[in-house]
């Protein structure tokens, strides 16, 4: 079985990555298994300065998943470069740096800091975090998103992935604007804005009031958006949202994802990423595919047709 | 720490809304007092996330129990388990209580379902020749847990209830002053922990430790969901140091490390 897949010029040995914010910078999972098994690692969002994150309560349960409003607590660029990246660099896996900040200048500072560092395979621009005040600023307006992407494009030669929010009316329009501005790939989806109410305390469970929904509950939303993006755009998509089995991963590939990321599932099963790699191999075989490439967009004829025309 | 497939061997009901599950692990476990496990049961409807529980009693290297109050869907699903049912247990997790080098006089304060981590701690302290006294509090006498189990370790137990139906009528922390303890360890609801914190501040009893709870998603440090505010953050870390992870840096903190 050929599990290797290419996204934006990066060859992943298999299409299973870990999603940003559900894996820290890899240290904890490394106590459980060899990170070199993974196709790639998308690290927790990194901002220019250290961020405190939101006050607790940050987590609530939800049917088929959870809500979170962590608020991008992270140690900042310098700590990432001096402590976290050197740790990850020792593994034979592709490290994708999730970048976040309040404004263009902040994004650019992180991108410039990461650019040229050994062991960084790509940058993922997080313009889709629903849990910080200005997190969706760039997503709400495709022109604004394109403006940011164009500037980042100038600042680095690293492959550029833009993470798409499901909390917009037209994710394809947003994705198209990013592609035209120089994005090499898209990742989708980030969490879906939601809320939980605590009846006893008569207020929202989460201190930030709203939180992002993730886990199996959002899988249909993720599949729909990945399908639409792959159908309309030429750049590859990394699919995520509720993947907890090899079967789920295969569904994303067939919808049009070139690779997938596993997020919330690692809370329920810390070994989910390596497990899913094994399961995916068997699922591909059972479905009659000889490679990840064959499965790609197998359920999305428009996407396949477009690549053949091109 | 590792995820394991465990089996229910016994189910006890020490109080109307409380369950004690005795679980059999596939390998020998050596959790430290104060550490916890993430347990998964249920079909995923509001139980997608595992729930953190401290281990209570250990019976053999592969057998330990968990004592919990049914307060929502996660604990309800765990409470519905019966002998021979299987579930996932991830652990042991977090940092437990520091153990003293020399024998001392320790007071263990447990409110409601805060008692479980105190049993293994009490046993470890007794093995080190410490004098141990346990103060157990609850709303009513029906909520007093773990009394017989602690007494079984040779620990003196004093009780307090909010309604006066057993022992001291009032908060269990009222009993702290008369214990003459050199060290205090507390686990229970936040108002109780705050009272213990205030006691430590007043009496300058540095050896006071609190076992905290927090809403958790992962339990092993990757989600940053279980934040508790630090009292004196490391300036090196900048704003990032504002919060500590209850699941990794805790769940046990010294009284002056955290803001409650
Ligand atoms: C380290 C540690 C050790 C612990 N040890 C023990 C122990 O030994 N014994 C024990 O009994 N407990 C223990 N706990 C507490 C235990 O983990 C919780 O009681 C349990 O997680 C509750 O889950 P639940 O689904 O039953 O209840 P939930 O209803 O999920 O949570 C309980 C509370 O949170 C609120 N809440 C959370 N999310 C929502 C939502 N989406 N919608 C509405 N309300 C919500 C509810 O109002 C309720 O008061 C421990 C906790 C920690 C962190
Ligand atoms: C606790 C938590 C923290 C997250 N942090 C980030 C983050 O820092 N940056 C980001 O781009 N996405 C973040 N996400 C979103 C995930 O990467 C992923 O896009 C989303 O959760 C959907 O996938 P899932 O259902 O498999 O979790 C976070 C999600 C969760 C649950
Ligand atoms: S519960 Fe996930 S970091 Fe503590």
Please, how many domains of chain A? 1
Strand content of chain B: 35-45%
Number of strands of chain A: 16
CATH fold title of the largest domain in chain B: Rossmann fold
Order of helices and strands of chain B: EEEEEEHEEHEHEEEHEEEEE
Give the ligands present: flavin-adenine dinucleotide, flavin mononucleotide, FE2/S2 (inorganic) cluster
Give the helix proportion of chain B (percent range).
10-25%
What is the gyration radius of chain A calculated from CA atoms? 18 Å
Number of helices of chain A: 10
The CATH architecture of the largest domain in chain B would be: 3-Layer(aba) Sandwich
Short characterization:
The complex is a heterodimer of chains A (310) and B (260). By secondary structure, chain A is α/β, with parallel strands linked by helices.
What does this structure look like?
The complex is a heterodimer of chains A (310) and B (260). In chain A, 34% of the residues lie in helices and 19% in strands. The longest helix of chain A has 15 residues, at 272-286. Chain A has one domain: TIM Barrel (Alpha-Beta Barrel). Chain A has 310 residues and is an alpha/beta fold. In chain A, helix 3 runs parallel beside helix 4, helix 5 packs parallel to helix 6 (246-255) and helix 6 crosses helix 8. In chain A, the strands form four sheets. An eight-stranded parallel β-barrel of chain A has the order 3-4-7-8-9-10-15-16, surrounded by six helices. Chain A has a four-stranded antiparallel beta sheet with strand order 5-6-14-11, with no helix packed on it. Chain B is α/β, with parallel strands linked by helices. Chain B has three domains: 2-93, Translation factors (Elongation Factor Tu (Ef-tu), domain 3, Beta Barrel), CATH 2.40.30.10; 105-211, Nucleotide-binding domain of ferredoxin-NADP reductase (FNR) module (Rossmann fold, 3-Layer(aba) Sandwich), CATH 3.40.50.80; 215-250, no CATH class. A seven-stranded antiparallel beta sheet of chain B has the order 4-3-7-1-2-6-5. In chain B, strands 11-10-9-8-12-13-16 form a seven-stranded mixed beta sheet, sandwiched between helices. Chain B is globular and about 50 Å long. Chain A binds chain B through residues 21-24, 27-29, 31-32, 44, 49-66, 68, 70, 73-76, 79, 215-216, 264, 266-271, and chain B through 1-3, 40, 44-50, 72-74, 88, 90, 214-229, 237-243, 248. Flavin-adenine dinucleotide sits between chains B (36, 51-54, 67-69, 71-75, 113, 116, 213-214, 216, 251) and A (60-62, 196, 198, 200, 205).
């Amino acid at each position: 079985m050929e599990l290797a897949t290419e996204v934006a010029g990066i060859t992943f040995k298999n299409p299973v990555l870990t999603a940003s914010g559900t894996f820290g910078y890899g240290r904890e999972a490394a106590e459980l298994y060899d990170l070199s098994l993974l196709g790639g690692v998308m690290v927790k969002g990194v901002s220019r300065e250290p961020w405190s994150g939101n006050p607790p309560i940050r987590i609530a349960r939800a049917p088929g998943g959870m809500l979170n409003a962590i608020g991008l607590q992270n140690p900042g660029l310098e700590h990432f470069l001096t402590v976290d990246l050197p740790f990850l660099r020792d593994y034979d896996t592709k490290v994708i740096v999730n970048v976040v900040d309040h404004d263009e200048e902040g994004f650019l500072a992180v991108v410039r800091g990461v650019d040229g560092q050994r062991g960084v395979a790509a940058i993922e621009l997080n313009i889709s975090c629903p849990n910080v005040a200005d997190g969706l600023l760039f997503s709400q307006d495709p022109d604004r998103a394109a403006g940011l992407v164009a500037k980042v494009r100038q600042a680095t030669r690293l492959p550029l992935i833009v993470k798409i929010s499901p909390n917009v009316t037209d994710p394809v329009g947003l994705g198209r604007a990013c592609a035209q501005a120089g994005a090499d790939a898209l990742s989708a989806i980030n969490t879906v804005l939601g809320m939980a109410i605590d009846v006893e305390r008569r207020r929202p469970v989460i201190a930030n009031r709203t939180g992002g929904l993730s886990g199996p509950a959002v899988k249909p939303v993720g599949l729909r958006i990945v399908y639409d993006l792959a159908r309309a755009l030429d750049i590859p998509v990394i699919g995520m949202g509720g993947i907890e089995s090899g079967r789920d991963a295969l569904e994303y590939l067939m919808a049009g994802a070139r690779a997938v990321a596993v997020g919330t599932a690692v809370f329920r099963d810390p070994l989910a990423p390596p497990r899913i790699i094994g399961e995916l191999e068997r699922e591909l075989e059972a479905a009659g595919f000889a490679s990840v490439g064959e499965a790609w967009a197998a359920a999305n004829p428009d996407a396949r047709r477009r690549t053949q025309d091109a | 720490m590792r995820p394991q497939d465990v089996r229910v061997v016994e189910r006890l009901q020490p109080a109307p809304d409380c369950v004690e599950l005795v679980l059999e692990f596939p390998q020998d476990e050596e959790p430290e007092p104060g550490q916890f496990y993430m347990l998964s049961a249920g079909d995923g409807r509001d139980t997608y996330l595992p729930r953190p529980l401290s281990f209570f009693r250990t019976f053999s290297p592969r057998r330990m129990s968990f004592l919990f109050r049914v307060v929502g869907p996660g604990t309800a699903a765990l409470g519905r388990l019966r002998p021979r049912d299987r579930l996932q247990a991830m652990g042991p997790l977090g940092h437990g209580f520091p153990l003293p080098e020399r024998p001392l006089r320790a007071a263990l304060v447990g409110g409601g379902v805060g008692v479980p981590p105190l049993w293994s701690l009490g046993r470890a302290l007794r093995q080190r020749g410490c004098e141990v006294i346990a103060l157990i509090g609850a709303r009513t006498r029906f909520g007093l847990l773990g009394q017989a189990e602690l007494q079984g370790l040779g620990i003196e137990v004093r009780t307090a209830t909010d309604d006066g139906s057993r022992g001291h009528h009032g908060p269990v922390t009222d009993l702290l002053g008369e214990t003459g303890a050199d060290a205090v360890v507390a686990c229970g609801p936040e108002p109780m922990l705050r009272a213990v914190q205030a006691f430590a501040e007043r009496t300058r009893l540095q050896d006071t430790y609190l076992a905290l709870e927090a809403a958790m998603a992962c339990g092993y440090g990757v989600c940053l969901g279980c934040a508790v505010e630090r009292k004196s953050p490391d300036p090196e870390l900048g704003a990032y140091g504002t919060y500590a992870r209850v699941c990794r840096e805790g769940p046990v903190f010294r009284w002056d490390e955290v803001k409650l």
